[in-house]
Design goal:
about 260 residues; Four Helix Bundle (Hemerythrin (Met), subunit A); 2 domains; 12 helices; about 60% helix
Amino acid sequence: MKPFSRRNKLKKEYSGFEEATLKLRNRLLQLHGKPYSGNEYSFGINNTNWIHEKAFDKDIQMHFGRKISIESFRDEEKTTYDEVFDFIELYYSRAVEDLDYTKRDQLHDNICSAFKNSGSVYGFNVDGQAILNLDKKKAKKITTVKAILEPAENARNKFINLIDGLFNRSMDPADAIGDLYIVFEDFIKEVTNQKSFKDAIGKLRNSLSLHPIQVKLINNLKDYRGDVWGPAHAGNSQKPGEEEALWYLDMILSQIEYMERKTK
């Protein structure tokens, strides 16, 4: 069952390309210790179904070539995103050796949930590896646009929410397209300091010397959104799926990056 914030689309978490946010780190670190790891005093001398933390500490030291405290993986100033991913891969590798199938499978599900609930563009595969869930170029663009949207707080929050919903499949693709256009429109109005989209486009055309084809492309993005989404649905196209939403995402990301460069 989805919790309240998920059902009502209030959760706004995103962990981007080459990033492990504090909340993702916290979720992964929460899995270190009971019920998965400890020592014989924690689980009882006759219970062998636990990850041996002393052996895991040695795994960490051998891999990194130095002693790193477990809490250091929670601190973004002490460890990088790739070191955090190495940590969880090494932990799961130790689980493969020390845990029975049922407990190991439970740990794997928890790791996958940690990535998913953090809105990460990374995931955890069946081989126990942290992997990028989308192509590298798109992941970089999403992270770049997230930074570009920093001054437009409402647009940025909506962007983070829709990216999370689109990649964990909790948002309808048509709703993602609708929200993407709203983000784009809010961004254009922000950079041009105009209240209406029409005035913003007019200012872009004049101040940036946009080619008429570029202006037409922006209007076409608006028309496509109106054709497939919400009350403005014209009914001329079939309901969009994930492929159409990802295509629209690519177009919007490219336009925002382009407008940012032009207005610098």
